[in-house]
Structure formats: C-alpha cells, structure tokens
Amino acid sequence: MSLMNQLLTSISSSSSALLGQDHLFLTRPKNVVLPSKKSGLCKCIAAPSTEKTAYKTKVSRNENMGKLQAGYLFPEIARRRAAHMLKYPDAQVISLGIGDTTEPIPEVIASAMAKRSNSLATIEGYSGYGAEQGEKLLRAKVASTFYANLGIEEDDVFISDGAKSDISRLQVLFGSDVTMAVQDPSYPAYVDSGVIMGQTGRYQNNVGYAHIEYMKCTPENGFFPDLSAVSRTDVIFFCSPNNPTGSAASRDQLSQLVQFAKDNGTIIIYDSAYALYMSDDTPKSIFEIPGAKEVAIEISSFSKYAGFTGVRLGWTVIPKELQFSDGFPVAKDFNRIVCTCFNGASNIAQAGGLACLSPAGLEGMQEVIGFYKENTRIIVETFQSLGFNVYGGKNAPYVWVHFPGQSSWDVFGEILEKTHVVTTPGSGFGPGGEGFIRVSAFGHRANVLEACRRFKELYK
Amino acid sequence: MSLMNQLLTSISSSSSALLGQDHLFLTRPKNVVLPSKKSGLCKCIAAPSTEKTAYKTKVSRNENMGKLQAGYLFPEIARRRAAHMLKYPDAQVISLGIGDTTEPIPEVIASAMAKRSNSLATIEGYSGYGAEQGEKLLRAKVASTFYANLGIEEDDVFISDGAKSDISRLQVLFGSDVTMAVQDPSYPAYVDSGVIMGQTGRYQNNVGYAHIEYMKCTPENGFFPDLSAVSRTDVIFFCSPNNPTGSAASRDQLSQLVQFAKDNGTIIIYDSAYALYMSDDTPKSIFEIPGAKEVAIEISSFSKYAGFTGVRLGWTVIPKELQFSDGFPVAKDFNRIVCTCFNGASNIAQAGGLACLSPAGLEGMQEVIGFYKENTRIIVETFQSLGFNVYGGKNAPYVWVHFPGQSSWDVFGEILEKTHVVTTPGSGFGPGGEGFIRVSAFGHRANVLEACRRFKELYK
After folding, report:
1. Residue A152: its chain B contacts at CB < 8 A?
2. What is the DSSP string of A138-201?
C-alpha cells in the first residue's frame, strides 16, 4: 500500500465524519485552507444558519454549550488536516497531531478479541449484558497488575470505554456546583466537560474560563504548579505524565499535591493514561503516595499501551476511602452513574483487556510502548539539534517544543503548510500552552523519520 | 452444559460485579433473601457507613444524586436474584427479568467482528481513533436501512455504544433547565438521568419526582396518553413499541404526538429500540410522521435485534431540521457532546453493526427476532390461559400482566420465591406500573417453557 493510499484510507476512516459534517456545519467553501489566526482558536462552527427552516422548537439551548469555544481541539485539527489535504491533494501529509496510535495491536491481544467475537455465536460462549462496572475478572486483574500492594481492590476498579468517557461521567457525578482546577496547559476534555456541566463562567481570551483555577505549568516551575499560589477548589484534574507537556511529577511533588488536597478537602482526579511510558522510577500511580486513597480518583486507559484508541477500553479507580463531606462514599455515587448512564464496555474489548494483562500481553504492550518511545527519542533529538528548547519525551510520548513569543496556531499553520506535518498547537491545551507545539510520537517509524527530515529542512 | 451450570456461569458473568459490590455497599448478611416491601422499591443501598474512616473531603455530594430512589432498577433485580440464588443454591432460577438477550449472535455478524479483531493486528487493517460520530459507512448504512425515503441522511446519524449511553448524553446536552415528560410506566433511564442532571425535584412515594410530567399509559387509554391532559414540557421521552407495556403507538397516535410537540415547541426523544419486533404496519420510526424531523430525535440499538447487549452498539438520529428556540441546530451541540464526552463506539462493534446490515446479517437478525417473538407468544398464551389480563407481546418482546390491586414488588417476590422465575415489578417503571409485572421474552426456549409450566403450577 503506497503512503498516499495509506493517507487516503486514513482520511476516509478517521476524518470521514468531519468531512460529512462539512455538509451540515460549515459555510466555508471546502477547497480553501483556513488562515491561521493571530490568537485563540478560530471559530470553526458556523453561526446559526441564515437559510432557516420554517420551524423552531421552544426549547432553549443549554447556555453552557454556548460558552464552549469553537470545536473540541482534536476534531478541529482533523478538520484542518482534511482541508490541507484538499488543498494539496498530492502532499504526503504526516500526522504527529492528535496522538492517535498507528502500530498494530499485539497478536495475542487481537486474537483474544477474535476468539471472544466468534464465541458470541455459540450458546456456550454467548453473553448479554455484563456488569456495568466491568467483568469481575478484568477488574481484579487491573487491580493486581497496576495497584499490587497499594490497597486497591477489585471493587474499587470500574472498567470504562475509555478515559474521556469517564472524565465526563465523573463530571456528571460531581454536578454543576463544584469548582475545578487544571494544570495549564492540559488535556482539553477536563475543562470542556466542566464547562458543559455548568461549573464555569464565560471564556476570556488568553485567560480561560471564569471560575476555573488554571495552575500554570511552565519550564520555569519544572511544569509543576506553585501550589502556594493555587486557590482551593473542590476538584483538581492532574495528569502525569502530562499531556501535553510530557513531564512527570516526582514522588515529592505528588506528595505535595496529596497534602495540598488533604489540607483543602479537595478531590484529585489523576489521569495516568501514560504511566507505562515512564523511564524513571517516578510514581506510576497516585496511590503510591500515602493517604492518596482518601483524596484521589485515578483514570487510565489501554489506548496508548495496546493501541486500543479505536477498541475503546479504560478504567477508573475510586477507592472506598474517598468520601464526600457528608461521609457518603464517592464510589457509591459513581456506581449509580455507571448503572444509569452506561452499560459497561464492550465484552469483546474486555476480552482484549484481559489478554493485555496476561504475561504475553504485557510483553506485547511493552513492545508497542518501546516502539513509540524510540520515536520520541528521534523527535527530541531532531528539535534539540535544531536549537529548540524541548521538554517532555523522557516519560511520555509527547514532545513539547518551545517557540517563544510566537502564536502556536501560527506555528502549527506554518509547519503544516511548509512540511505537510500535522502537530498540535499548544494554546489548544489552555492559555499556558501558547508559544508551544506538541509533537506526538505516535506514528509509523518511516513517517516519523520523514517528518523529522522535513523539520530539519524547515528550521535548518 | 447443565442448566445449573449455565445459571452459575450466567450469575458469575452478569452479576459478578453486584456480588462484588456487596462487599462494598451492603450491610445485610448475604444469605438472607430480602423481604419484599408493601410499596415502592426497598432502599438497597446502605446509609452512609457508621464505621467511618478518619478523613472526609470538603466536597459536597451532588444533591441530585441524593434525590435518586434506591438502586437503578435492573441492578437491583440482579441483586435480588443473586440473593435468591444464595438462599436456594439448588434452585433452577430462570430470568425473564432484565430483558437480557440469550441467543447467540448470528455467525455472519460474529465472524465479521472476529475478522476486524484479527485485522487490528496487521499494519493494513489497524485503525486507531475513529470518528466520534461513528464510521461513515455505518452511518450511511443505518440511514439507508432504517430511514430510506424518510429524508434522514448519513450525517444525521450518530453511532453510539448503546441507547442508554446516548439517553444520558442527550440529557447532558439539554442541561438542567429543561422540563421533561415521560410515559408512565417507562424505561427508568429517562427519569433517572433527568434526576441526575437536576431537572427534577424530590421524589414522592406513588407520585414520582416533582417537575416531571408523568403521562399515564393504562389499559383504559390503550397505553397512549391523553395529550389534552398533558402539560407542556421541553422534552418528551416516548418509547414505542413500549418498554415495559409492550404496546406500540399507531400512526394516528404518533401524528397526534408530533402535532402536540409542534404546538408546544417540544422535542420528542423517541426510543425505537424494539421497532423490528412489530407485527403490524405501525410506524417503525417517528420520522414516518410528516414534520417529525423538526421536533424529534430517535434513539435505537442493535441490542435486541442482534444480541448486542454485551457488544454495545446503537445509534441516535438528530435531523438537521431540529432547532433550539434561537435557531441553533440541536445536532451541532450533540456533535460537540460526542466529541468532548465520547470517543466513538468500539471499532470492532461497528464492524459487527455493518455486518448486521448486510443481506445475510439482516436475515440473521430476523431469525433472532423471530425466535424471541415465538417466546412472547408462549408467554402471552400462558397468562391468558390462566385468566390474566395480558397486554403487549404483539409488537414487542415484553408481556405486561395485570395483577389488579396488588403491589408489583409483592408479586415479583412471590413469583421468585415460589417458581424461581425472575420477572420485573411494574412499579420499577414508574408509579403507573403498580399492579403489573413485566415478563421478558428473552430466554432460551426450554427456560421459557419451563417458566410457563411453573406459572401454570402457581396460578392454576
């Protein structure tokens, strides 16, 4: 399969819906690439159509939806990539943007899913509704594999269809009255789901949403916030190793964070989706920190370990020690949420999850992770050789490249225009990401090498 | 495999988490069956534990969660079934309760999922993140299969991991300020998700939640509400063929409903998850009614057609003609919700969905449906022969049996105790279900026949 064919296949599968959406949502002609704007995300969603149909309901639009800025970051990038490919139909576009895995799922894992699929056609192998919380065996295996000796038990683990879905379910659980803090920059789903739930005020350019505590993470503070300057909130979203900066908090820093939460009665939602990418002995789970079970939830995912971005499987740990102010266990309310708003992850995906945690599966995952880590090393070296200040990469599959004083959407646009490589503009992760570009290490080796060659050409 | 072994396998897979939960959530000794109560659902979730840990966070529990009555209906039933099996370890318990499919997935569909699983282990066949809205091909196929000539297009269709998840996402979309109406009785996820979002007031025994408009559906009104007595709400949840009553609204009734929505500027959320079970020419989609595209959303699922209750795949149709009062398209906000709070259904499940809609797959689904329809006929005949007033069954896999003047939890308990058959108490579906029992037709033929034999024994 030629690279061009691969790209066309890829655009037709991953961007198809976006192209489909054009039909519905975009007023711009398709063949024009969007100019990048000086600051902020350009508004990609059309204003209410002028060619109105005769009828409107009397239902008011949820005002929280109206607060959201433009499209969710990654579909917006996919849309710009699609527009670029329409402008340059012959270009060999390489995506180091949305963090999408590209390497095959280890065979031992894929074949376990195939086996489960086939068995569903038999009376003995068939299963209908599973437990909303996930299959008992998988919950137990997640607990023993990732949380051995940390006091996390099978019934603290909830199997999900991915971390993003559970972030949203956690927001539904907490409701509209909580206040939240996020690392700035951070994975946009934390903030956007909080906006949707009505936890925030309006957006202000270069500042962010009102009522969100943005904890600046910069090269100057080693990407760990100065907690003495952080106001108390009900919830803190904290991702380590961090997406997008690629930095991992040390044991000492995480101890500070847990102490800060304890002092404030705050709940930490700790995203450890990249934990297995760590190269040093930095904690892989927040529950390695004593006392964390009383203040923390951990969310994670098989997406970046086993290439499950399309298969959809993750988990959330809510220790029974975690309580609301009235002593009600948080896990009990979350259990009610998954029973009412979710019906469990696909049984086939769960069979895959079990295989991931078998000895051969764990080995297979380490190979996948090792592959992307080598990609990361190549990207880091490339930008370092070009004289950039480069962060991340050591403990995460993301490289955070500094372009001081420049608009990250401008840099994104220039890189795309001149090298046909898709990256992610730092400001898409929050005001604190301005002036940075995130380069993802998820890609075929040949593409990563070719992208790096083009970077060297552009910035030589 | 013996029946007992089958039951044990079944309980260990489908109720495992619930048994696991006992450890966390229940204070009652395990070996005691719960007495059924005179009215309402008994409170199955323990009050905040008395053996408190030292630490509580300062985060207030979401007060909407506190409004929810007891556990979500179906896990509660699974829990009672589990307790019953502990009490009678040798009993051959038969479940005609939670509506869980039991028959194998047609081979052509299962093998398509196996093929997709295996292909994920290859470079050519691998795919990562798919479109959040679902794969283009599947969206198009759903549109052409179920909505041919109804003006529904590919980009009106959003692929989900099941109807229950999308009900919840729709509630997140609408937010806390909308008012809602439901058929009474109805599938509990509509009401419970509205409670969680804060759309309602407190629960009142035998009345329901404040601020919900309960549209009584009784034998007297042919299970179609008297719309002249229904107050205007922003949203109406309407399920046809109905779960639990099994009755389907006629074309004339649906036209009245659409007109009612138009007059009031209301949005109908139409649940058609049982449409293919219809035996007559009653509309299979709300979009068969002229003008419905301006006032309706339709949710549906592969669960009951192809045995996908565990595989997890469904869809939601939001026509581009549907607008909020300010002219903003509802589909555009829903698109933002799926991009922010969901990452698409599993790619393997979507391969199964595509296979479902192939000629061989459609044939296979018809066989599955035909099998359960024959079960339905057997159950209807049984209760009719015993002199009960029986509703439903003709257009849906649910039989709605009248026990006038009796508490449905009492009847549920008596049937379970004396016949070891699990049914569903009508009052679990809302105050209007009191005095009824829902008998689900999902079961192996031998089990259905055996259950009916026991019913005849009990009520002879």
Report:
1. none
2. HHHHHHHHHSTTTT--GGGEEEES-HHHHHHHHHHHH-SS--EEEEES--HHHHHHHHHTT-S-
In A, minimum Cα distance to B352 occurs at A117
In DSSP notation, A300-321 reads EESHHHHTTTTT--EEEE--TT
- Chain B nearest-CA distance from A390, in A, is 27
CA angle (A191, A194, A199) in 5-degree steps:
125
Nearest CB among A48, A110, A344 relative to B117 is that of A110
What is the nearest CA distance from A429 to chain B, expressed in angstroms?
Answer: 14
Contact A12 B65 (CB under 8 A): no
**What is the chain A residue with the closest CA to B444?**
A123
Pick among B124, B152, B172 to test the A interface (most A CBs inside 10 A): B172
Burial class (CB in 10 A: 0-12, 13-18, 19+), A283: buried
Domains of chain A: 3-103+363-459 (3.90.1150.10), 107-359 (3.40.640.10)
Residue B268's closest chain A neighbor by CA?
A57
Strand partners, B213: B181
Cα distance between residue A357 and residue A313, in whole Å = 13
> CB B110 to CB A101 under 8 A?
no
CA dihedral A381, A383, A385, A389 (to 10 degrees): -110
Taking the CA atoms of residue B342, residue B344, residue B348 and residue B350 in that order, the dihedral angle to the nearest 10 degrees is 140
**Rounded mean pLDDT of chain B?**
90
φ, ψ dihedrals at B10, nearest 5°: -65, -40
Mutate to test the interface with A, among B343, B347, B350, B442 (most CBs of A within 10 A): B343
B63: nearest CA in chain A?
A175
* CB-CB under 8 Å, A173 with B1: no
pTM: 0.89
DSSP-derived letter for residue A227 is G
pLDDT bracket for residue B71 (50, 70, 90): low
The C-alpha atoms of residue A211 and residue A190 are separated, in whole angstroms, by: 14
Write the pLDDT tens digit of every residue in A400-447. Answer: 999 999 999 999 999 999 999 999 999 999 999 999 999 999 999 999
Checking if the pLDDT of B68 tops 50, the result is: yes
Of the candidates A17, A23, A127, the beta carbon closest to that of B131 is on A17
Q: What is the pLDDT of residues B334-367, one digit of tens each?
A: 999 999 999 999 999 999 999 999 999 999 999 9
A interface mutation test: which of B15, B23, B41, B62 has the most A CBs within 10 A? B62
CA atoms of B458 and B414, how far apart (whole Å): 10
**CB nearest A72 (choices: B113, B161, B339):** B339
Residues near A248 by Cβ (< 8 Å), separated by ≥ 6? A240, A241, A242, A278, A280, A282, A394, A395, A396
- Supply φ then ψ for residue B22, to 5 degrees: -45, -45
CB contact under 8 Å between A127 and B262, yes or no, is: no
Angle between helix axes A359-385 and A107-119 (nearest 10 degrees) is 130
Q: What are the φ and ψ backbone dihedral angles of B88, each rounded to 5 degrees?
A: -120, 75
Mutate to test the interface with B, among A6, A61, A156, A160 (most CBs of B within 10 A): A61
User: Are B373 and B246 spatial neighbours (Cβ–Cβ below 8 Å)?
Assistant: no
Biggest alpha carbon–alpha carbon distance for chain A: 64
Spatial separation of the C-alpha atoms in residues B426 and B352, rounded to whole Å: 33
Cα–Cα distances in Å, from A74 out to A9, A412, B304? 19, 13, 34
For residue A260, what is the nearest residue in chain B, using CA coordinates? B57
> Which residues from B are below 8 Å from A71, CB to CB?
336, 339
ipTM of the complex, rounded to two decimals: 0.89
Report CA torsion sign: A159, A162, A168, A174.
positive
